[in-house]
TrEMBL record:
<keyword id="KW-0813">Transport</keyword>
<keyword id="KW-0830">Ubiquinone</keyword>
<keyword id="KW-0274">FAD</keyword>
<keyword id="KW-0411">Iron-sulfur</keyword>
<keyword id="KW-0285">Flavoprotein</keyword>
<dbReference type="InterPro" id="IPR036188">
    <property type="entry name" value="FAD/NAD-bd_sf"/>
</dbReference>
<protein>
    <recommendedName>
        <fullName>Electron transfer flavoprotein-ubiquinone oxidoreductase</fullName>
        <ecNumber>1.5.5.1</ecNumber>
    </recommendedName>
</protein>
<keyword id="KW-0560">Oxidoreductase</keyword>
<feature type="domain" description="4Fe-4S ferredoxin-type">
    <location>
        <begin position="509"/>
        <end position="538"/>
    </location>
</feature>
<keyword id="KW-0249">Electron transport</keyword>
<dbReference type="Pfam" id="PF05187">
    <property type="entry name" value="Fer4_ETF_QO"/>
</dbReference>
<dbReference type="InterPro" id="IPR040156">
    <property type="entry name" value="ETF-QO"/>
</dbReference>
<dbReference type="InterPro" id="IPR017896">
    <property type="entry name" value="4Fe4S_Fe-S-bd"/>
</dbReference>
<dbReference type="Pfam" id="PF13450">
    <property type="entry name" value="NAD_binding_8"/>
</dbReference>
<dbReference type="InterPro" id="IPR007859">
    <property type="entry name" value="ETF-QO/FixX_C"/>
</dbReference>
<keyword id="KW-0479">Metal-binding</keyword>
<comment type="function">
    <text>Accepts electrons from ETF and reduces ubiquinone.</text>
</comment>
């Protein structure tokens, strides 16, 4: 196929915090050294920020380094944290507030800000464009370009105007080849190109498997009398029971809004569990409902997050390309934060690439300097000190794991001489449906709890209907012959958007994929017990359109 081609020094895949920080740092260095540099960022969302979903309490350490004058530049960090409440919820009706001494220091938020990361990314994009970066929203990177020597040489953006069978319509426009000396992959958690590269170059060889959670978030307008701007509330315990771990949050942002959510680790074993319905239950707990009652839900979203930490970090370099941010899994789950680490890895990658290009390198080489810089950075130190946080929680559970982590972080600063690992895959953890307890969730009351379809409506999700399905089945028979018979087809429940259904028809059961509902969380690609679902990019601009998540 004849494709239009464009050449750049650096192509960045993804306009999230890591990709945009890399772009800004590259151009800052180019201006300082008075060198010409052509940098572009491709983003699958309809605009920068459209697919960004994060709690978010933001640690400004990397921002301070990238833009020391961010306050003068009116960065949207306007709500400093003023209080930390952490609860252990023992059941549906009660919970206790934990004293600071019983909470790992990593959970303390002095000096941090409650932000919309979508708006932070929009601001970063403005800075990048002012520095000379070209940003192309609505252009998903669909394929990797490999040079003759096997090195990465850029990406191909997705074709537009294909029908459901993959045939060109009248509106067909082929994707473009964006060739680069170096490519930075910053797709976020479980990026489909990053997944391909990790497998091709064996970047995870000798590492623990990556572990994941699914994070939910809603924005509520609440009664001003109940609003406490700057208050951060975290919780552990209920509604997650037995071998299911995770935690909830409620952040008081500006303008009488709160961000409420629940994170559920995707190593859970009960195939009857529905993460979405656990989140709906969570909002009914008195410690959470006290703020939401009388309010109005205005936005909804969900996204997988990589939480394996230090032990699961893949090698981040390969010939011609690097992985940064959540693409590599640099979130510090002990802090429940990854935006600052994502930004810093993007900046480190930018510095290594700039030095290579400035020395006359024509690309295609492996950037060992990036690995060295990362290992000498505060990100590496931070992740190393919290390396046991997730594995201990998985092995010992919320209560005992929490006690160990408090001791390790508060007394020993993460230096206890033990190394816990979790070498099981999240998708291998499901019990047979016949061996697991059936969970009967209450119906939503449409006051605090809601159904999936009304929730997806609030995410402003839209896909061009007549296009190839972006949720690929390796074997179309497996959902019914394997997953249904063994696990009661858990895709019906782990998907937070009602994409997957098993329908009764005159001809028998039918597995249905409602791809138009997909909010790009990637949970299906992670949790499917048969690893039969592959998430790829849909046509450009498809998916959620989050206004200020």
């Amino acid at each position: 196929m004849e494709r239009e081609s464009m050449d750049f020094d650096v192509v960045i895949v993804g306009a999230g915090p890591s990709g945009l920080s890399a772009a800004c740092r590259l151009m800052q260095l180019a201006q300082e050294k008075e060198q010409e540099l052509m940098v572009c960022v491709v983003e699958k969302g309809s605009e920068v920020g459209a697919h960004i979903l994060s709690g978010a309490v933001f640690e400004p350490r990397a921002m301070n380094e990238l833009f020391p004058d961010w306050k003068e530049k009116n960065a949207p960090l306007s709500t400093p944290v003023k209080g930390d409440d952490i609860y252990f919820l023992s059941n549906a009706d009660s919970g206790i507030k934990l004293p600071n001494l019983a909470v790992p220091k990593t959970m303390h938020n002095d000096g941090n800000y409650i932000v919309s990361m979508g708006n932070v990314c929009r601001w970063l994009a403005e800075q990048a464009e002012q520095l000379g970066v070209e940003i192309f929203p609505g252009f998903p990177a669909q394929d990797v370009i490999y040079n003759e020597d096997g090195s990465v040489g850029g990406v191909i953006t997705g074709d537009m105007g294909l029908d459901a069978e993959g045939n060109p319509k009248d509106s067909y426009v082929p994707g473009m080849e964006l060739k680069a000396k170096y490519t930075i992959f910053a797709e976020g958690c479980r990026g489909h190109l990053g997944k391909e590269l990790i497998a091709k170059f064996e970047l995870d060889k000798g590492k623990s498997p990556q572990h994941y959670g699914i994070g939910f978030k809603e924005i509520w307008d609440i009664d001003p009398a109940k609003h406490q701007e700057g208050l951060v509330v975290h919780s552990a315990g209920w509604p997650l029971e037995k071998d299911t771990t995770g935690g909830g949050y409620l952040y008081h942002a500006e303008n009488n809004q709160v961000f409420v959510g629940l994170i559920i680790d995707l190593n859970y074993s009960n195939p009857h569990l529905s993460p979405f319905d656990e989140f709906q239950r969570y909002k009914h707990h008195p410690k959470i409902a006290q703020y939401l009652e009388g309010g109005k839900r205005v936005s909804y979203g969900a996204r997988a997050l990589a939480k394996g930490g230090f032990n699961s970090l893949p090698k981040m370099t390969m010939p011609g390309a690097v992985l940064v941010g959540c693409e590599a899994g640099t979130i510090n789950f002990a802090k429940i934060k990854g935006n600052h680490t994502a930004m810093k890895t993007g900046m480190l990658a930018a510095e290594s690439i700039f030095d290579a290009l400035a020395s006359g390198c024509e690309g295609g080489k492996e950037l060992d300097s990036y690995s060295t810089a990362f290992e000498n950075s505060w990100v590496y130190d931070e992740l190393y000190r919290t390396r046991n946080f997730g594995p201990v929680m998985h092995k010992l559970g919320t209560f005992l794991g929490g006690a160990y982590n408090t001791l390790d972080q508060n007394i020993f600063g993460g230096r206890l001489p033990f190394n816990f690992t979790d070498d099981t895959y999240d998708h291998d953890q499901l019990k047979l449906a016949s061996d697991a307890m059936v969970i009967n969730y209450p119906k939503p009351d449409n006051i605090l709890s809601f159904d999936k379809l009304s929730s997806v409506f609030l995410s402003n999700t839209n896909h061009e209907e007549e296009q190839p399905c972006h949720l690929k089945l390796t074997d179309a028979n497996i959902p019914l012959t394997v997953n249904l018979t063994k696990y009661n087809e858990p895709a019906q429940r782990y998907c937070p958007a009602g994409v997957y259904e098993v329908e009764e028809t005159e001809a028998g059961k039918k597995f249905v994929i409602n791809a138009q509902n997909c909010i790009h969380c990637k949970t299906c690609d992670i949790k499917d017990p048969s690893q039969n679902i592959t998430w790829v990019t849909p046509e450009g601009t498809g998916g959620p359109n989050y206004p200020n998540m």
